[in-house]
Write a structure and sequence with these properties.
The protein is of the alpha/beta class. The chain has helices at 6-24, 51-55, 67-83, 177-189, and strands spanning 26-32, 43-46, 87-88, 97-124, 127-155, 161-170. The N and C termini lie far apart (64 Å). The relative contact order is 0.22.
């Protein structure tokens, strides 16, 4: 194999590894109300009957998620918040924060241009000789679907959002929804402050 091909093979290999890592990674982020005192919250409940439910109509969108995945999201959120020192309110307990979630998906296109090299060959005196090198490039286009899970925390008294976290992932038919949900919820809520040691 010519030495001039090695950089091309290395670039192709690195691009493949990068593409696969992007496909499997979960990107997260969060936003918080700077005026909210998160240290006051200790007990949570899921959005239920009342004005807040109307404001959050469509949170559990059946068109996007199955009842089983709905249960998995709720169970995973419950477990994660309890590990952080919060507890799920049981009537007649009155929670200080209310939890809701939303899901969605979006079709996306990734365009990647990678460098390449080629050489001109021309006949000279009955023999073929190499001409000058010139740069080329190859373009690959990938279509994929990205799913997003958002977890929203509201003050139960003011009914105002105090913290929102989200996770996005490139979706694949081979995804194990249980594993993806568990990882996404864990990564989202790792940004939420723990109630332990207050």
């Amino acid at each position: 194999m010519g030495s001039q091909n090695k950089p091309l093979l290395l670039a192709a290999f690195l691009f493949t590894v990068w593409t696969l890592s992007c496909a499997s990674s979960i990107k997260t982020g969060f936003d918080v109300d700077p005026a909210a005192d998160l240290s006051q919250y200790k007990m949570f409940a899921w959005v239920g009957p009342g004005p807040l439910t109307e404001a959050k109509a469509g949170t559990n969108t059946a068109s996007f998620i199955s009842p089983l995945d709905d249960q998995r999201i709720r169970s995973s959120v419950n477990r994660t918040l309890e590990k952080l020192g919060y507890w799920l309110a049981v009537p007649p307990d009155v929670p200080d924060m209310v939890v809701a979630y939303s899901v969605g998906s979006e079709d996306k296109v990734r365009v990647h241009q990678s460098p390449g090299r080629a050489v001109t060959v021309y006949p000279y005196g009955g023999q073929y000789r190499y001409g000058g090198w010139y740069s080329t490039s190859s373009v690959s286009v990938q279509q994929y679907r990205e799913g997003t899970l958002s977890i929203e925390l509201y003050d139960s008294k003011t009914e105002q959002a105090v913290w929102v976290g989200w996770a996005s992932k490139r979706l694949s038919r081979s995804d194990d929804s249980r594993a993806v949900i568990s990882e996404a919820v864990s990564k989202i809520l790792q940004e939420f402050p723990s109630a332990r040691g207050r």
